[in-house]
């Protein structure tokens, strides 16, 4: 469907509002790359990736005389013949220095999903969206049981020189890296021809951790999509020419995100994953990016570190422990909220949720669809 503009009386605050289902929107992607709070999961390129899982795109972009003012990209999918859900991760994104218009824009989004007969809308504000988090409850949004995106992570500032970055790593992690190097682990940069081998490692990880992996197509689409607007990379760790560990990276704006790690399970004593993360940091530094985001840690880990406490016992051997070895800053992000546009269904939803610990049937089904592999 081509882009269109709503009649001004339907959106009095945003006369120049473009609503589009296009999966290619370079102007929007450029706006996100240079705007605080912009994130790769809001790009039109990401909509191509999620389309592999049958999510459809709905993008609202408001402009003024200076260009794009604000916008949001929703992903939509039916969960039954009668129920459609939409989710908005890391949005809406507002131009820096703009007047406080986030609440008005969320109201526009709500009106739009109502007209499209969407029964459940889930929203996770952008990383800098505390203002949005504060007013969503006043708009009848409720804290959502779904994790649309990480609510805590570790972010490493890449400004220091590599030698200083290495000094900032915890001693045990630094020793793991050196021990792996001495034992013959080698790191190299991978490319598209290595995706099948990376995917085999991803499948091995999924088997060990008992989850269903995304399809191989999902990663090939991601690779080719992000090559066109920023950067995507693959760091591979080998032992005797055997691929042992591989880390897929997505770069956007000033940040590189560690998207997915695959590990064969071999040579655990040599800590190949530590070497993968370190070389991913170096890859990002060489390309001039400012930050490296380890893409999520358990909220309990974040709260423990921020309070100056040790990790909970069940997380001391988790990926969180590895990520914390690199000396980055623990950050927390806004949680997700959900909203049922229909007042009668909203009342029923609230009543049912209060009797089921906050997890409604709709939320459980939506979570299962969001996690379709």
What is the class of the largest domain in the CATH system? Answer: Alpha Beta
Beta strand count: 16
How would you classify the helix and strand content by structural class? alpha+beta
Which homologous superfamily in CATH is the superfamily of the largest domain?
Gcn5-related N-acetyltransferase (GNAT)
Strand content: 15-25%
* Cα gyration radius (Å): 21 Å
Kindly report the average pLDDT value. Answer: 88
In the CATH classification, which architecture of the largest domain applies? 3-Layer(aba) Sandwich
Q: Can you tell me the overall shape?
A: globular
- Largest sheet: number of strands, sense, barrel closure: 9 strands, mixed
From the 3D structure, determine the CATH topology of the largest domain: Aminopeptidase
Helical residue percent band: 25-40%
What string, H for helix and E for strand, traces the elements in order? EEHHEEEEHEHEEHHEHHEEEHEHHEEHH
Total DSSP helices: 13
Low-pLDDT ranges: 1-10, 368-373
Number of domains: 2
Measured between the Cα atoms of the first and last residue, the distance is 27 Å
Provide structural commentary.
This protein has 13 helices and 16 strands. With 373 residues, it is an alpha+beta fold. The protein folds into two domains: 4-149 and 334-370, 3-Layer(aba) Sandwich (Aminopeptidase); 152-332, Aminopeptidase (3-Layer(aba) Sandwich), CATH 3.40.630.30. α2 (44-51) packs antiparallel against α8 and α6 packs across α9 (272-286). It is globular.
What's this, in brief?
This protein is an alpha+beta fold and 373 residues long. 36% of the residues lie in helices and 25% in strands.
């Amino acid at each position: 469907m081509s882009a269109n503009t709503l009649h001004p009386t339907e959106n009095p605050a945003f006369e120049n509002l473009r609503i589009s289902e296009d999966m290619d929107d370079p102007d929007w992607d450029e706006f996100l790359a240079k705007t605080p709070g912009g994130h790769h999961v809001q790009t039109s390129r990401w909509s191509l990736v999620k389309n592999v899982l049958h999510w459809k795109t709905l993008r609202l972009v408001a402009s003024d005389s200076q260009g794009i003012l604000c916008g949001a990209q929703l992903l939509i999918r039916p969960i039954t013949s009668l129920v459609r859900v939409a989710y908005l991760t890391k949005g809406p994104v507002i131009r820096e220095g703009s007047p406080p218009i986030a609440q008005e824009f969320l109201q526009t989004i709500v009106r739009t999903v109502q007209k499209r007969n969407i029964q459940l809308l889930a929203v996770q504000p952008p990383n800098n969206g505390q203002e949005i988090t504060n007013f969503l409850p006043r708009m009848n949004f409720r804290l959502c049981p779904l994790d649309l995106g990480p609510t805590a992570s570790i972010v490493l500032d890449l400004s220091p020189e590599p030698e200083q970055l290495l000094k900032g790593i915890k001693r045990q992690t630094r020793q793991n890296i050196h021990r792996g190097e001495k034992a013959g682990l080698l790191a190299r940069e991978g490319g598209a021809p290595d995706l099948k081998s990376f995917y085999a490692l991803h499948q091995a990880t999924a088997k060990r951790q008992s989850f269903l992996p995304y399809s191989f197509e999902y990663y090939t689409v991601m690779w080719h999509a992000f090559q066109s607007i920023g950067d995507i990379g693959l760091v591979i760790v080998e032992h005797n020419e055997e691929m042992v560990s591989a880390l897929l990276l997505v770069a956007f704006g000033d940040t590189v995100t560690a998207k997915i790690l695959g590990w064969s399970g071999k040579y655990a004593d040599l800590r190949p994953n530590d070497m993968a993360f370190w070389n991913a940091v170096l890859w990002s530094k060489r390309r001039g990016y400012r930050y490296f985001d380890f893409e999520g840690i358990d909220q309990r880990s974040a709260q423990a570190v921020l309070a100056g406490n040790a990790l909970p016992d069940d997380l001391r051997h988790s990926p969180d422990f590895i990520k914390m070895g690199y000396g980055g800053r623990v950050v927390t992000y806004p949680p997700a909220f959900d909203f049922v546009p229909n007042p009668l269904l909203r009342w029923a939803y609230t009543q049912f949720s209060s009797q089921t610990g906050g997890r409604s049937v709709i939320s459980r089904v939506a979570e299962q669809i969001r996690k379709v592999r």
